[in-house]
Amino acid sequence: MSRYKNIPAAVFKSKCLKLLDRVAAGGEPLIVTKRGRPVARVLPIETSRGPSLAGSVTTRGDIVGPLLDEWELDR
To answer: Where are the domains of the chain?
Structure first.
């Protein structure tokens, strides 16, 4: 059995927003058909939420001043 649900294009057109909400909420993906032939696949977007870097950066000293002092620029 296919993991996709087939739906005629006319039905998809009339219920598009509701169907998209169902797919996005984790419902099964859809295959939109026209005259019985598949024409489109509607899948939820897979988001990869890796580890967060929030709070992992520390600053030391002046972060907006020049990187080199005048002595190093004369070299």
So the answer is: 5-42
Give, for 17, the enclosing helix (H) or strand (E): helix 16-24
Residue 52: burial class (beta carbons within 10 Å; 0-12, 13-18, 19+): exposed
pLDDT, mean of each 10-residue run, the chain (75 residues)? 83 95 89 96 81 77 73 62
Task: Please name the residue that has the structure tokens 């294009």.
Answer: 9
Task: Indicate whether this model's pTM tops 0.90.
Answer: no
CATH 3.40.1620 assigned to 5-42: yes
